[in-house]
Amino acid sequence: MAKQAKKNGNNGANIGFEAKLFQAADKMRSGVSPADYKHVALGLIFLKYISDTFEAKHAELMKEGEDFAEDKDEYLAENIFWVPKAARWSFLQASAKQPTIGKLIDTAMMEIEADNPSLKGVLPKEYAHPSLSKTMLGELVDLIGTIDVGGDEAKARDVFGRVYEYFLSGFAGAEGKRGGEFYTPRSVVNLLVQMLEPYQGRIYDPCCGSGGMFIQSEKFVENHGGRIGDIAIYGQEINHVTWRLAKMNLAVRGIDADIRWNAEGTFHKDEHPDLKADYILANPPFNVSDWGGERLREDKRWGHGVPPAGNANFAWVQHMIHHLSPGGYAGIVLANGSMSSNASGEGNIRKSLVENDLVDCMVALPGQLFYSTQIPVCLWFLARNKGKNGFRDRKGQVLFIDARKMGTMVDRTRRELSFEPDNPESDIDKIAATYHAWRGEKAAIDLRGEYEDIPGFCKSATLEEIREHNHILTPGRYVGAADEEDDGEPFAEKMQRLTAELAGQFEQSEELEAKIRENLKKVGYGF
Length: 527
Known about the structure:
alpha/beta; Rossmann fold; two-stranded antiparallel sheet; globular
């Protein structure tokens, strides 16, 4: 069974608190679109978090004297944001019912940015906009003010992190296709993280959205006995609004990261040109046709073939390979066409990746996992060194996993992969454990036994087998059909029995039809 969250007597740690808070906040939108409202709500959640952590430290320092409590360096030394008096939550909530509340919040955001250079250009400052109801804004301030963690900094990070993430998810769902631009569903991120196990080292996402890959990576490290800081985080995002969401998301979690933005994008202005990452986790935009590839025909990153100007899928793949360390791993979400397309040289690039032994594992996922598209997608897992590298030697082998039948519908349009750490049959654990056993990881083998091919689910294929399929990497071609349960009855005898049963059912059907016709005639409706 999945572990239940502990209750500790305050609203911030009870199960379902995030959902109730989001529902209440969403009712206050008053005609404001989710795209605009998310910045209003998320900015206030962030403001409440940094104010609470500041106030807790302020109360502690007041015991030593007011001079200590108002010394900015005392806070910055412990990575706590300095919050000026006019930006502290207590001051703003006291003015929540005033018509000037929007202007007060905008001023608070500007003063916080002025005193904390790492937040420059990050915080929203549209609260005084005439289109925003000040009554609604005051009610939202009061609602977010109910989040109370009692001055516990660790608890604050957990509670506010959960609330921020839940609101991101909620707004992504409300925005539909646009929501996919800034949010990758948690179950997909969890699967990538559980597969790659990023315990320590450099983690990179060249199209990081709101930072979900980094958040789950840090959670993984903490859940396995590590510490925040065991991994170094690098990212880039082309959308400035989404970059701001990521910066706040990571700050709420207390995660230090080098996340950069520019309007040209990762392909044309790589902000981390010399980075060699130990892990790359990414969900690049699918099938982008206007990525400017015609201006990059001679780029050094295209070591396996020039990607087509009309589709960026293999530009993303090769960009990430370029940034992998000699022992690095990458997990990438891509459209299914990447596994089989031969258009514009894509087949040749895929062939080169396979023949250079960079493809470690392919996972086919079910449809309806994403807010932005209903189509099924796949996961590519790449490895720079499939020799031992901490695992068994897998040179010349690729693992194929067909997970298209997994997941459960959580609403009318969206599916999720289940993840219950104490349940080895949950979707994510089953997929990840299969990969780990195939890599020869002792913990997975002790739990599940040695890796074995399972018809209909997984297959370890050789490069020769992949060549026979013309380097197409669709898992369904390799795993085959699931074995039917053997009930011990010979096929000929079973067919004879079933045919006899069917004949009997036909006979009963004819008798029933005759009786119905007879009864209809009796009431004058014969035909």
